[in-house]
Design a protein that fits this description.
By secondary structure, this protein is mainly alpha-helical. It has a domain at 2-63. The chain has helices at residues 11-23, 29-40, 51-63; strands at residues 2-4, 7-9. The chain is elongated.
């Protein structure tokens, strides 16, 4: 028995995950998590599926060596600045809102 994201996962649950992935090798992570939530009745208090929580649990199971997930479809790309830096974007000296302490009366 393992606990991930507040839910206990039995050996049968791990077998279910493995079986679903073997039955449909093209199954991606999101559809897999939705299918598992429906199968287990894993929902939020408002009735929505806990599919994001399930994906986190699946990722942690993979990190622990219990399952092997399909590769993630999300690639992280760094975006370039929308504008080139100029002297106007350099750090400026702080401005005083009230009379500055270094001013003389």
């Amino acid at each position: 028995m393992s606990i991930y994201c507040g839910r206990e996962f039995s050996a049968d649950d791990i077998q279910t995950i493995t079986r679903l992935m073997q039955q449909d090798p093209s199954l991606k992570r999101s559809p897999l998590s939705r299918k598992l939530c429906e199968l287990w009745g894993w929902t939020k208090p408002n009735g929505e599926l806990k599919d994001m929580t399930c994906r986190v649990a699946l990722t942690r199971m993979q990190a622990d060596g219990l399952i092997t997930l399909p590769p993630s479809q999300i690639t992280v790309t760094r975006r370039r600045a929308a504008f080139p830096p100029t002297p106007a974007t350099d750090a400026q000296a702080p401005r005083c809102r009230s009379p500055c302490m270094n001013s003389t009366p």
